[in-house]
Amino acid sequence: MSQKNRDGKRGARERLQEQRQQEAARAKRRRTLVAAAVVAGVLAVAAAIGVVVANTGGEDEGPVASPKGAGGENGLVLSKGRADAPATLTVYEDFRCPACKQFEDTYRSTIDSLVKSGDLRVDYHLVTIIDGNVGGQGSTRAANAAACSQDAGHFPEYHDVLFANQPPETEDAFADNGRLLKLADKVDGLRSGAFDSCVEKGTYEDWVARSSSTLTDDGYNSTPTVLLDGKDVYSGGRLTPESLKKQVEDAARS
């Protein structure tokens, strides 16, 4: 083979090799661009999701409708009595809870007397533990109706009516808004278009859910839970109406 032919073949091989190298480089650049686009897309989606989460918030983070005058931490407490009373009774109650009714029946007159004298304020946390344990919606709807009665300035009276007319624990009768409205007739001045609409629409059910969560958030797991100035005084059967009165009066004198 002549030198000329050998040089020609060598030149062709070199051009082919150079062409292949150029194609490989272009392919690498394409792969890099595709990968970058995919990463950018993923980041964009993640950012969008982050914006949605940030804007909507979790279920327990956004604002909810609250009854007028609700107090305590995060506005999840309904109270009766002077705000500056020397003693505070904190009560976690469920309107379907038989033990809660027993507590109310036993201590109501003593509590009302101490509230009237100005010595005691009662902070109520409305709880829906029976709905979870037995099923149904009676605890939630009764608590919502009680919150609606707070708007009308009749929470203490309606609270007492609900416990006085508590159905058996396994009967979800308080899930019937019609029954709750009929019971409201027992409280002078409570029924109105605004109250009825509040009950029927479940206006405060989200607020009730948050109020109920305070039971476990505060480290308790049953109703009624009763605290006097932050100290558990009811579990274990230690409390009596007489001892409650004495402790509250002692606090008022100190």
Per DSSP E runs of 2 or more residues, the count of β-strands stands at 5
Enumerate the spans where pLDDT stays under 50 for 5 or more consecutive residues: 37-60
Reported CATH architecture of the largest domain? 3-Layer(aba) Sandwich
The main sheet comes to: 5 strands, mixed
How far apart are the termini? 121 Å
How much helicity do the residues have? Answer: 55-70%
> How much strand content do the residues show?
5-15%
Task: Give a quick rundown of the structure.
This protein is an alpha+beta fold and 254 residues long. It is built from nine helices and five strands. The protein has helices at residues 3-56, 98-116, 129-134, 138-151, 155-164, 177-184, 193-201, 205-217, 241-253, and strands spanning 78-80, 87-93, 120-126, 225-228, 231-232.
Short key terms for the protein model shown above:
single chain; 254 residues; alpha+beta; Glutaredoxin; 2 domains; five-stranded mixed beta sheet; 9% strand; globular; signal; transmembrane helix
Describe the protein's architecture and organization.
- The structure is a single chain.
- The protein has 254 residues and is α+β, with helices and mostly antiparallel strands.
- The chain folds into two domains: 1-57; 73-253, Glutaredoxin, CATH 3.40.30.10.
- 57% of the residues lie in helices and 9% in strands.
- Strands 1-3-2-4-5 form a five-stranded mixed beta sheet, sandwiched between helices.
- Helix 2 (98-116) runs parallel beside helix 9, helix 4 (138-151) packs antiparallel against helix 5 (155-164) and helix 4 (138-151) crosses helix 8 (205-217).
- The longest helix is centred in the N-terminal third of the chain and has 54 residues, at 3-56.
